[in-house]
Amino acid sequence: MTELDKSAVLADVKLDLDIEDDLQNNLLLLLIRKVMDHFKLAYSVESVDEIFAFVIEDCTIKRFNRRGSEGAKAESIEGHSVTYDDAASEFEPYDDLIRSKLSLLETKERRGGIHIL
Questions:
Q1: Which of 7, 54, 87, 98 has the maximum number of C-beta atoms within 10 A of its C-beta?
Q2: Could you give the CA distance from residue 36 to residue 32 in angstroms, rounded to a whole number?
Q3: CA distance 49 to 1
Q4: How far apart are the C-alpha atoms of 91 and 117, rounded to whole Å?
Q5: What is the reported pTM?
Q6: What pLDDT, in 10s, does the model give residues 47-100?
Q7: Distant-in-sequence, close-in-space partners of 60: CB < 8 Å, separation ≥ 6
Q8: Domain boundaries, the chain
C-alpha cells in the first residue's frame, strides 16, 4: 500500500480547477486534509492509498466549489438552481468501489509467517 501524496493531489486539483498560481494552496491543502481525514474515519483506515487519489481529488473539488454555501441543500437564483450533497455522503458515489478495493488490499497485505516443518 502506497500512501497518497498530498502535493500530487494538490497539483491535480489545481489543474482541474484551472488554478495556475499558488494563492489558494493553503486553502486547497486544508480541504485535501479534511477530505482525507473524513476518508480515514469513514473507512477505518490509518492512511489513504494512492489508488484512491481520484476520490480525494473529486471530493476536494466539490468542497472547493461549495465554499460559501456549505450548509445549503438547495439554492435558486434567477432560474438557476443548485443542490449540494451532504458532506456525510460525499463518498457515496464511490462507496462500493472503495469497500471492494479496501477488502482486496486487506487480503493481500496480511501479516504472515513461514513455518518450517
A1: 98
A2: 6
A3: 6
A4: 47
A5: 0.78
A6: 999 999 999 999 999 999 888 766 666 666 777 666 665 666 889 999 999 999
A7: 9, 13, 28, 31, 32, 35
A8: 6-108
